[in-house]
Amino acid sequence: MWTVINQTFATPQDKNAWAHIAADNLGWRKVQPNAADGVTNTFLVLVAAKASGKQANVVLNASNEITQAYL
Question: What is the pLDDT of residues 25-40, one digit of tens each?
Fold first, then answer.
């Protein structure tokens, strides 16, 4: 789904990144913690969308975690 990224959040702990998604009032969604590089790369796309004011296409899994994002 194409959506605005309201906020992003990450901590120094391994694979802990989040985004607040505007679409359908989904709120905070965790980036799926499969691999550290995957979480980092997906988070960077979400941050770039927020910083540029562009919408991102976000794909969620059955657990409502973010599995993919692109601009």
Answer: 899 999 999 898 999 9
Angle in degrees, CA 11, 17, 22, rounded to 5: 125
53: left (phi over 0), alpha (psi -120 to 50) or beta: left
Q: Report the percentage of the chain scoring pLDDT > 70.
A: 100
The answer for residues whose C-beta is within 8 angstroms of residue 42's C-beta and 6 or more apart is 17, 31, 66, 67, 68, 69
